């Protein structure tokens, strides 16, 4: 798996609301911190050898006395589906991984995007709740043709 995909239950740990843009045209923006479990196959997105480092026999988490492993990756132009809403142009960042037994990882990440005002209120209602989250890069455009000269 070389492409990022999170599809599962995640808790909204934190919601940061702000306005960004030029002074005369500020737009509402949010940073939502999620924490959820997913299959350790996602480790390959961050490093091809990460799963072998974190697990013995691919399913038993190595006992480690370390903080969650953080990554500086940023993935832009993602789709985020949650609470029957779809957000596009989402930036995913601040990834942290903790291995869990059973070939699972606990993944924490932040999604930054520009919702509508009423969507912020809906998100706020679910802070500390576990919801279904689907986050993935938008598909690459393939026009299936060759450039003409």
Compile the SSE list and pairings.
Blueprint: E1 6-20, E2 27-39, H1 43-46, H2 50-54, E3 55-56, E4 60-61, E5 69-71, E6 75-82, E7 85-100, E8 104-113, H3 117-125, E9 130-137
Antiparallel strand pairs: 1-2, 1-9, 2-8, 3-4, 5-7, 6-7, 6-9, 7-8
State mean pLDDT (0 to 100 scale).
90
Structural class: mainly beta
The backbone outline, from C-alpha atoms, is elongated
Q: Over the alpha carbons, how many angstroms does the gyration radius reach?
A: 17 Å
Termini distance? 36 Å
The overall number of domains is 1
How many helices does DSSP assign?
3
Taking the sheet with the most strands, its summary is: 6 strands, antiparallel, barrel
Helical residues, percent: 10-25%
Low-pLDDT parts are none
Spatial order of the strands forming the largest sheet? 1-2-8-7-6-9
Q: Can you count the beta strands?
A: 9
Q: What is the N-to-C succession of helices and strands?
A: EEHHEEEEEEHE
Portion in strands? over 45%
Features of the shown structure:
single chain, 149 residues, mainly beta, 6-stranded antiparallel barrel, two-stranded antiparallel ribbon, 3 helices, 12% helix, 52% strand, elongated
Explain what the structure shows.
The protein has 149 residues and is mainly β. It has one domain (6-135). It has helices spanning 43-46, 50-54, 117-125, and strands spanning 6-20, 27-39, 55-56, 60-61, 69-71, 75-82, 85-100, 104-113, 130-137. Strands 1-2-8-7-6-9 form a six-stranded antiparallel barrel. A hairpin with a 2-residue loop joins strand 6 and strand 7 (85-100). The protein is elongated and about 55 Å long. The chain starts with 5 loop residues before the first strand and ends in a 12-residue tail after the last strand.
